[in-house]
Amino acid sequence: MEKLREHLVVSLGNPLLDIVATVDSEFLDKYNLRPDNAILAKDEHMSLYKDLVEKYNPDYIAGGSAQNTLRVCQWILQKPKIAAFFGCVGKDDYANILEKKATQDGLSVFYEYAVDAPTGTCAVLISNGHRSLCAHLAAANEFTVEHLQKPENRELWENARYFYITGFFLVINPAAVMQVAQHAYDSKSTFMLNLSASFVMQQFKEPLMAVMPYVKVLFGNVEEAKSFARAYDWETKDLKEIGLKLVALDKENCEGERIVIITQGPRPVLAFQGCAIKEYPVQRFTPEQIVDTTAAGDAFCGGFLAQYIQSKDLDVCIRCGIWAASQIIQHSGCTFEGKPSFRE
Fold first, then answer.
1. In angstroms, rounded to a whole number, what is the distance separating the alpha carbons of residues 299 and 296?
2. Is residue 298 among the annotated active site residues?
């Protein structure tokens, strides 16, 4: 078992400043947004951010799915700089806020700075216990393979043993993801992928299938799993069947079986390995206890990761994921406080 050390985990992602507010359904309708959906901003959404700030007095939270996952992982580990994060930001105040908040949470960040684009933002719109995400990636779109290739950066990620990538980032720079995936394979390291959102399967099928053989651990929720099945014409909506098919997809690395984890909100988490399927119950909450489900999936992955990199049993990894998600949904945004109380 590898001991916890600096930069054991590396992630590539989209660093975004979350602008979080509770809105009414008229606001969602105005911008053609649906509850519990995640989309990339189009032209029609460009005035949304200003509108949100003027009308709703939002909170600002360091965000971006991968960065959230690593922040939760760091919180649980209570040991700084185990995780290193690469992404692209603008040269502006939002970037400073992001860096400050991420490093306060124990993360090492290695941002690339875009010359002409502002730091990315994500509108997190909460209504009736649901959340809708609209991300304006801006500078996050500008991430380059050259940034990864800088000698000091390259040395850092080549020494990592675990790689965590989101589908959101696969959309931005498939070449960077493939480079890291190939390295993980060559160095017998572990490459993990989060499907992230249905549009990844629908619109970016080719880069997803190119990287899939390298994936040792795959995360997704119900909607994403079903979207994957639809995108690949698997004529089934049965989650257990879909999970087994995901496990069985071609794999480069013959060592160990792929693990597939499908979260279902308040319903049990499904874990697939080989032909085995296990269900893990999720703690029940009253509607009053649930503040914001936005980062539940990110937090689940953070809890899982914190145990997985310590070579804990899959059961412990998943229970920690469920525990982490249960903590995060009781706060606004991906925020936490105090010492983590998870016990194996």
1. 5
2. yes
pTM tops 0.85, yes or no? yes
Burial status of residue 57 (CB atoms within 10 A of its CB: 0-12, 13-18, 19 or more): exposed
Looking at 24, 298, 313, 315, which residue is catalytic?
298
CA-to-CA distance for 134 and 122, rounded, in angstroms? 6
d(CA 150, CA 157): 11
Running along the chain, 344 residues long, what does each successive block of 10 average in pLDDT?
Answer: 87 93 93 88 93 91 92 96 97 92 93 96 88 92 97 97 97 96 96 95 94 97 95 93 95 82 95 95 86 85 97 97 92 82 89
Contact criterion met (CB below 8 Å) for 130 and 147: no
Give the whole-angstrom CA distance, residue 70 versus residue 299. Answer: 9
Identity of the residue numbered 167 = G
Give the whole-angstrom CA distance, residue 194 versus residue 69.
Answer: 11
Residue with token string 């982490």:
324
Phi, psi of 112 (to 5 degrees): -95, 145
